[in-house]
Each structure stands twice: as C-alpha cells, then as structure tokens.
Amino acid sequence: MKKVLIMIFALMLVVNVNASIMNNYSDSINSANSYIERFNDYAKYIVSDDNIKFKYENNVLSYNSNFLKGGFLNLSEFNISKRDDKTYLFTGQKYWTMTESGANSNVITSYTAELKSKTDTYGVRVTEYVNSDVEITGKGTYNDPWMFVKIESNEPTIPDTPDPNEPTIPDTPDPDEPTIPDTPDPGEPTIPSDLTYTIEDNTSCRFITTQGYWPSSTANGFKISVGLGEMPTEGYSVTISSVNISSSGVVINATSTSPGTNQTLQKTTYPCAVVTFNQNPINYTVKLNGRILSLPEGTADM
Question: ∠207-211-212 over CA atoms, to 5°?
Fold first, then answer.
C-alpha cells in the first residue's frame, strides 16, 4: 500500500495537525482517526480500507486496532530518515510516535526520541497512505512540496427528482414584512404612461433603521420611503424636493435637515418622507441631498 517508505514522510509533512494542538496520547489518537475526514474527497487520494497497517517495526508492517484512519510516525521510520544524526522530521515541535511501551510511548523531542507517559501532552503529526493511482507533483521541499494532482469525478450528475406523491408547500410571506418588488432589467425600462404620485414629508419610518430607501407594494399602489435611519434626538426631518418622471426613469430627490444647536430632547426618531405612486414606477433612482441611495442595511418591525 505504501508507494515507498519515504512517501510516509511526505504525507506526514502535508497531513499535519496544527502544531499548537497538544494532547495526551489517547486524545492524540482520536485526532489521528478524525483528521483526514475534514477534507473533501479524501477517499480519492488516501487509502481508507479497514485494518490499515500503520505500525512499522523491525521492517514489518502491522495493524494497530487503535489507529483506524490515520497513524503516527513510527520510531523506526524516524531513525531511517536520519543523516549525520539529523533529520528533516524534527522542526522544533515535540510529538508522539506510535512506538509504544506499556503505559509510555516514544516522543520525538529533538533528533532523538524519549519514552514519555501517555498522560503527558505533546504534539500530533498524522501519517496516511496514498492510493497507488494518485499522481503527485513537486520535489518534496519546503518551496516545492509534494501536491496531489486533482482527480476529476467521472460520475454523472443526477438532478434531484421530486416525489410526485409529496404535496408542494408554497412559501408563506410574512405579512408584517415589506414586499421588495423584483427589479427588471435596467436596459429595458418601461415607465407607466399614467404614473401619478403623492408626497408625505416629515413622517416617521421605524422600519428604516439605517440611512437608505425602502420600496414596498401596497393595496392601492407603490410606496418609496426615504429615511435617515435611527436618530438620537428630535429635530431631524426629510422632505421630497422633486420627483422627475421621464421616459428613461423616475428620479426622486430628497433633502434632510438636522436639529439646531439648542436641540436637547433625547428621543429616538426615524425621520423619513414617503412618495406613493399609483403603480410601480419600474425604473427609479432615489437621491438624498444629491447622493444616490441604496436599500438600508437593517430594518426593524414596521
């Protein structure tokens, strides 16, 4: 199953639990068994058979029932990687191996290993087997690491088929929520020829909590409310200065005023002005003090 022994080392560098995680031996095994499942399509690249032989000792691979979906480095593998008593498998982090001895297990502490109690806490480095048909690029260096070549799925996409015996439940709109009409393609505006409107200045719109405008359909027409959002005092106001209707669209111009320096009454207000059309104007722009507005980011109950 292992392409070559060195491939274990390559995968250990790639499939690596964050070095900041320090666990006792039992919890570290749990991390090894669950770590690979965090990745999408891991089964395409990683061997996921039962009874995987992660243990390697005296040149023999064997099965350890505690390690189901990931292993640790074995002490024999660590020693094989040494050159002049140094190895790239130690980068400063102390971590568990799966070479055990009763209540202890070997821990890589530098370029050597020491037996430590399984109740102690050390780092976790997970090893995995690569499927034999997986292609790999790179040189295995820090700047050019081994990388899997993406495997494209050959399975056809099967669309969801609704159950013909299951009734379709339509979405029920919230009657207290303003209806936002669909916005048509701006390249094909159609302005109603009989469009009329009325204006209500200096009113209150509690549903506009941040500066912007809010369109809503009504039983008798279509409203566009222009508001400042939530203000801390009285004295703020919004008025509609003009509504310009042309073949290219409707432009609503609003202006606002602020309280004078003597305004002291602390009271939350929601100043706004409302233009009510007899029907949806389709293509419209809303400006406040000459600046184009957008829909407000937040709304409250109307």
Answer: 80
Q: CB–CB of 206/270 below 8 Å? A: yes
> What is the Cα–Cα distance from 77 to 25, expressed in whole angstroms?
19
Query: Mean of the pLDDT values across residues 26-47?
Result: 84
Instruction: Please write the tens of the pLDDT for every residue from 179-188.
Output: 555 555 545 5
Q: Which residues pair with 144 in a beta bridge?
A: none
Cα dihedral 206, 207, 212, 215, rounded to 10, equals -130
Q: Which residues, 6+ apart, have CB-to-CB distance to 255 below 8 Å?
A: 238, 239, 241, 288, 289
Strand 249-257 relative to strand 284-288, pairing: parallel
Q: What angle do CA 123, 124, 126 make, to 5 degrees?
A: 160
Q: What are phi and psi of 239, to 5 degrees?
A: -130, 150
- Residue with tokens 């200065």, as numbered in its chain: 241
**Entry pTM:** 0.45
Tokens of 117: 């109690």
